[in-house]
Design goal:
The chain is 15% helix and 44% strand. By secondary structure, it is of the alpha+beta class. The strands form 5 sheets. The protein has an 8-stranded antiparallel β-sheet, with no helix packed on it.
C-alpha cells in the first residue's frame, strides 16, 4: 500500500513538472497558452496577448505593469516606470448586466498599482481595487481591497486586506473577506489564487473586470519562470452606451463619432483626470528591501 502511494505521489510530481516546462526564453506558458516553436501562443478563445504573462479575448482591452516594471496603457503605448510609487491604472464606470445581458445598473471601479524595490530591483509589488455596484432598483454594494505579494525561489506568497461596505480607493483596509454573490443575476466578485500561473486573480463578473497579479521572485530574479507584473483586463461588452458602438478604439477616433450631447457626457466623466493631474503619488521614495520584507513578517 505504501509503495502504491509513493508511486502515485511520484506520478503527480512528474505530471506537475511536465506542466511547468519552460518554453520561451526560460519562461513557462500560462494555462491559456501553448508552447509552439519555443513560443508561448495564446489559445482560443484568447486571441491576443503575451502567452507567458496574460492572454485576452477579442473584445477585451488591457493595461499592464510588468517586469522592470514597464507600463502599457489601453492604447498599447509603453514606457518604463522604475519608481517606488503608487499609481492609478484605471478608473471606469461600466454597465452592470444580468445573465440575459439586460442592463440592471452600473458598476464603478478604480484600480491602482504600487511598486517596490528589493536588492536594487524595482518591481510591481501589488494592487488596490475599489468597487461600487449600483443597481437600478436602488441597491448599492461597495467593497475595497489591497493585494500584494512576493516569491522566493518559486514559492509564491500573497497577502490580502479588505473592507466590505465602503468604496475606499486609497484605503484604509480592514481584514474582511472580499467576496460578493448575486446568483439571481450571475454577478460575482472573487479573489482567487491560480497556482499553475502563480497568479492572484480579482474577478468581477457581469461588469467586465479581471485583474491578475504575479509577484516578483526576489531570490530567483532573472531565472523566474513566471513573468511578474499586473494585468488589468476590461471586457468591452460592458461599456456605457455613449462609448463607441463598434469596437474599443483610441480616444480620438471614438470621440469623432459622438454627437454634442455624448461628447459633453464623456468630458464630464473625465474631469477627475483634470482635477487630479498628480495621480501618480510616490508614497515612499526611500522604500528599501527591509521595508518590503517586513510586510511578510507580521
Amino acid at each position: 500500500m505504501l509503495q502504491h502511494l509513493v508511486l502515485c505521489f511520484l506520478a503527480v510530481v512528474v505530471s506537475f513538472a511536465a506542466g511547468q516546462q519552460k518554453c520561451e526564453g526560460g519562461r513557462k506558458c500560462i494555462e491559456a497558452a501553448s508552447c509552439v516553436n519555443n513560443q508561448c501562443v495564446c489559445q482560443s478563445p484568447f486571441v491576443w496577448g503575451d502567452g507567458t504573462f496574460a492572454c485576452y479575448r477579442k473584445n477585451a482591452v488591457a493595461a499592464e505593469s510588468k517586469n522592470d516594471p514597464k507600463l502599457t496603457n489601453f492604447n498599447n503605448e509603453t514606457l518604463p516606470f522604475p519608481y517606488p510609487c503608487r499609481y492609478l491604472m484605471t478608473h471606469i464606470r461600466q454597465e452592470l448586466k444580468d445573465n440575459n445581458k439586460n442592463v440592471i445598473g452600473n458598476c464603478e471601479f478604480k484600480v491602482s498599482a504600487f511598486n517596490a524595490k528589493a536588492k536594487g530591483k524595482f518591481f510591481t509589488h501589488g494592487f488596490d481595487v475599489a468597487v461600487s455596484i449600483n443597481y437600478d432598483d436602488g441597491r448599492k454594494v461597495k467593497l475595497s481591497s489591497r493585494n500584494y505579494g512576493l516569491a522566493r525561489n518559486g514559492v509564491y506568497r500573497f497577502e490580502r486586506q479588505g473592507t466590505m461596505g465602503a468604496f475606499l480607493p486609497d484605503g484604509p483596509w480592514a481584514d474582511d473577506d472580499i467576496q460578493y454573490r448575486d446568483p439571481d443575476n450571475g454577478i460575482r466578485v472573487d479573489i482567487t489564487e491560480n497556482n499553475y500561473n502563480n497568479q492572484l486573480v480579482f474577478t468581477f463578473r457581469r461588469c467586465g473586470l479581471q485583474v491578475t497579479f504575479v509577484p516578483y521572485d526576489i531570490e530567483a530574479r532573472r531565472s523566474q519562470t513566471s513573468v511578474p507584473g499586473l494585468s488589468v483586463a476590461i471586457n468591452c461588452a460592458y461599456r456605457e452606451p455613449y462609448d463607441d458602438m463598434g469596437m474599443c478604439e483610441a480616444t480620438s477616433s471614438t470621440f469623432a463619432k459622438c454627437n454634442q450631447r455624448q461628447r459633453r457626457m464623456a468630458i464630464d466623466s473625465c474631469l477627475w483626470m483634470m482635477k487630479q493631474p498628480r495621480f501618480v503619488r510616490c508614497y515612499d521614495k526611500t522604500m528599501s528591501a527591509k521595508k518590503v520584507l517586513r510586510l511578510f513578517n507580521r
